[in-house]
Amino acid sequence: MADPTPRSPSPSAWNDDAPNGEESAGVETPSGARAAVEELLDEVEAATEPRPLMEVGGLKGKAAIVTGASSGIGRAVAVALARSGVDVAFNYLGDNERAHRDADVTEQSLAAFDVRVYRRTVDCRRPEQVNDFVDRAVQHLGGVQILVNNAGIGRDRALWRMSDDEWRDVLDTNLSGAFYFLRAVAPYFRAQEYGKVVNISSIHALKSEFGLSNYAASKGGLLSLTRSAAVELGPSNVNVNAVAPGYIRTTRLTERVPPEIMDRAREGSALGRLGDPQDVAGAVLFLCSEVARHITGVILPVDGGHLA
Asked: Is 194 one of the catalytic residues?
């Protein structure tokens, strides 16, 4: 039996890269706020140290596909699954050198748990790439029982200034990409009469903010897709749920969001704090486990009570 403790735990395995663990267009930080940002980054480093997650049953020996897992929430989810004995296939866009370096860290972090790992660059807006990746992942891992749709982007802008490309890119990535992956794994799940799907949405699907019309629409659509898929795949013993993270304390979030907005987000939480990537990963583990075998079509906010 493999030792569930990683041989060389890496704090960087828990770094995030944007709100909700997704790539996002940059937002300039006010020139006078650098010191505050540095302080927040120190907090992030402390917050993202690996910590034990709850023990859940029925995961060891399964195989999962986690999209957009080169960093951020996706990486945290992938590492949490690997720690539980799950083989992991993950994709990333790979459109810059940082993405490849991040993917190297994810791959090394997963391999530390003695599980099988399959990695590939995939543009989730391209259904032919998605289909090929899923088929190859199944061949490499020997099957698939779990899908976590995490890949996503943000292009924040007031709607009257938003370009057609900014609208389409976000919808195509966050909503259509999730649909393509769900459609690709559905035949496998139906044939084996078993599957777990967790879609990473956002509290902005339930309570939007200024400049998020494309993002909120994409994540709201993902909630509807979750419910529809739960109804259609339920007879095949497939659970489909969504997690809706709030503000998750990440390196890139603090790099791109002014400190005063971070302070307001913290104050808006009933718990008086921002979330960590592991908070989202814990919710995903729960929904993928047999503990949650009778839960489907549910939207689970992980927001510290922001919506309360």
From this structure: no
Length in residues, the chain: 308
Residue 22 scores a pLDDT above 80: no
pLDDT tens for each residue of 12-21: 232 333 334 4
Neighbours of 251 (CB within 10 A): 19
- Name the β-bridge partners of 63: 87
Do residues 188 and 232 touch, judged by C-beta distance below 8 A? no
CB 254 within 8 A of CB 262: yes
Q: Could you tell me if 75 and 251 are in contact, meaning their C-beta atoms sit under 8 angstroms apart?
A: no
Sorted by where each begins, the domain ranges of the chain are: 35-43+53-302
Which of 92, 118, 180, 215 is flagged as catalytic? 215
Hey, CA dihedral for 116, 119, 124, 129, is it positive or negative? negative
Instruction: Determine the topology of domain 35-43+53-302 in CATH.
Output: Rossmann fold (3.40.50)
d(C-alpha 244, C-alpha 202), whole Å: 4
